[in-house]
Structure formats: structure tokens, C-alpha cells
Amino acid sequence: MSGRGAGGAAAVPARATVAGAVELVRAERIGKTFDVSAPWLTRTLGRQPRLLLRAVDDVTFGIRRGETLGLVGESGCGKSTVARLVVGLYQLTSGTITYDGKNIDALASGRAGRVLRRRLQMIFQDPYASLNPRWRVADIVAEPIRAHRLLRGRRAVHARVDALLAQVGLAAADGARYPHQFSGGQRQRISIARALASEPEFLVCDEPTSALDVSVQAQVLNLMRDLQRELGLTYLFISHNLAVVHHIADRVGVMYLGRIVEIAGKRQLFAAPRHPYTRMLLDAIPDLELTGKARTPVAGEVPSPLDPPPGCAFHPRCPLADDRCRREVPLLKSVPGTSGAGEGGEVACHAVEEGRDGRAAKGGGEGRGVASVRAG
């Protein structure tokens, strides 16, 4: 993805690891359960039990200041629920989330919550649905400034909005238009400008490029990397597209049915994936270099979270599953990094723990999974 995108967003070289940085966000054994039961009267007359959906189950991760953590997985794995838990849109069922040492429960309380909320913002998947169609763009971008009382006076707010629009590659005159008058990529730039209006340190990006075509994805990703470099932002980046995550993330977590099954540095995970599910995801990426070579297809369907299988949730689809996998839930455990592939990571897999995985590097290598992004 060379060259410059719309608005002057230039491709930037891969960032150095931020291993020495202080942890800004910490999620510790978080869980979220939704009650999806039928109404009480229906259940009573039909003698039906309550139905509880465990969307996120015992998830732990940390994000260092200035880092991008990518969270990937199939639809329904719980990654978007994690995003909403981190910014306080959903209440935790279990576990804790801290931001710069402060529990995010403070988001629900008075002045302390207002100060904390200003420091973290979210970019949503569908830019059109997340923008008020009846408001002009200038009012949309100015709303956080007014809500947090960051500036006084109409002239000062107007100047700040113009600067934000310019920062994301739009013209000041665009502030007088409505969201429906913009393309998908431009609407996402407006969403980014609104998120930056409160001068946050941490952005949760919930599949911000999934609704865009490949060339526009490249422009938006370049813009986000430029902004991170200029403003020192920290990202939690949610996506189902491994190519996008490869381009923007420093570390990658892989989720399956509400749990993180592997988390490692980007180079380590793409060059030497350990969990069988991560390997299957990487094998599913089109790659001309592997034409004619045997691949392991992603077999089967994700089980229903209303009735998850016992033991390891992946065992019905896993070629390495044994009796222990069918009985015992694996825990995330540290594994050493492969030489030349970067730092080690954590894997929740009995086969890896017992050495039955056949070695560490069956994956596709550092250059795997980037073609679709670079096409832009």
C-alpha cells in the first residue's frame, strides 16, 4: 500500500515495538452474559427455562500506551462485545477493566466519569448509522467539544471543527453538509474527526473499515496510523480481516466463542501461529505463493453460544482434539517466541501444551495476508 491516500494520508513504515511502554488498558478475566429468554409469561405458560448467552468468557489482555492491539475472529465470537465493554457501553458481568489504573466503573459517575470518558472514544463499524442524519457535519464534530466544555465561544468551536476536518483530510466547507452527501470513506473520516474532538488518548475501533472497499480501506488505515504517530494514540482495533490487522496492529488476539485462544506479537502470530484455529484462519487467506499446495480448510460451523461444547470450545472442529480437549477448558499459557519471529505469546490449547501441535510454524510467514490491503 504505497503512495498517498485521499486527504494526504501517507503510508508509513512499520512501527517499532512498544514493549517497554506502560500498560494503559487492562482487562482482567472479563465476562458478559446476556439474558435472551422469552418474556416471563411465555416462559411460564410454556414451562421454558431461562436462556443465558455467554458472549464474553474469562477474557484477559492488556494494551500498552501507544500500541495497537488487534482483536480478530469469526462473526459472533464476542470481539465487538469486548469493544463495548471497554468503553462502558455494556456493564460487566464479571471481571474488571482499568484505564490508566482507574476502574472504568467510574464512567457511570459524575465528574470523574466525564473526565475519564473524554480520554477514551469509539469509532463504530457503520459510519452512516453512527452519524445523526439530521445534523450538519460541523455540529456532529462539535458535539463532544460542547459536551465536555473544552472550548468557549462559537468562533473557537468553529475553528476547532475546521482543524479537525482538515486533520482527517476533509475541507472546512464540508462542515456545512449532511452525512448522506458523503461517500462511505468520507463518512468514516467524519466519525474519526468526531472521536478526536474530545482529545482522547485511547480509541476503540470496531471494524472501522469493514464497510469500505479495499482502496478506501487503505486510505483510512493510513490516516489512522498517521494520527497515531502524530498524537500518540492507543488503539483497540476490532476486525475479522486478518490483512487489515496485519497492516495496523502491533499485537494480535484471536477470539473464538467468547474466549481469547491466542495472543502474540504480530510478527510472531503471522509467522508461527500456535493455536489450530489461528492456523486455519491463516490458511484460509488467498495466497498465490501457496497455489497447488495442500491447505487445511476452516471446517464446520461455530457452535451456538447458547449451548457451547464442553471442554475446549474448538474441539468439534479441531484436528488435534483428544479426550482431554473434550473435558477440560484450556487456559492461556505463555509460549516462547520462534527465533526470528519476534516475542512469544500466550495460547490456550492442550495440544500446544503437550507438544502435539507438530511445531510452532506451520503458518504463512510475515508477508501472509497483506495483499488485499496493499492492493489499494
List keywords for this structure.
376 residues, four-stranded antiparallel beta sheet
Describe this structure in words.
- This protein is an alpha/beta fold and 376 residues long.
- The protein has helices spanning 40-46, 79-86, 110-119, 137-147, 154-167, 184-196, 214-231, 242-248, 266-271, 276-283, 323-327, 350-354, 371-374; strands spanning 23-35, 52-64, 68-72, 94-99, 102-103, 120-123, 202-206, 234-238, 251-256, 259-265, 333-335, 345-347.
- It has an 8-stranded mixed beta sheet, sandwiched between helices. It has a 4-stranded antiparallel beta sheet with strand order 2-1-4-5, with helices on one face.
- Helix 4 (137-147) packs parallel to helix 6 (184-196).
- The termini are close together.
Summarize the structure.
The protein has 376 residues and is of the alpha/beta class.
Low-confidence stretches: 1-17, 360-376
Q: Write out the strand line-up for the largest beta sheet, numbering strands in chain order.
A: 6-7-8-3-9-10-12-11
Order of helices and strands: EHEEHEEHEHHHEHEHEEHHHEEHH
In one word, what is the shape? globular
Write the layout of secondary structure elements.
Blueprint: E1 23-35, H1 40-46, E2 52-64, E3 68-72, H2 79-86, E4 94-99, E5 102-103, H3 110-119, E6 120-123, H4 137-147, H5 154-167, H6 184-196, E7 202-206, H7 214-231, E8 234-238, H8 242-248, E9 251-256, E10 259-265, H9 266-271, H10 276-283, H11 323-327, E11 333-335, E12 345-347, H12 350-354, H13 371-374
Parallel strand pairs: 3-8, 3-9, 6-7, 7-8
Antiparallel strand pairs: 1-2, 1-4, 4-5, 9-10, 10-12, 11-12
Helix pairs in contact: 4-5, 4-6, 5-6, 6-7
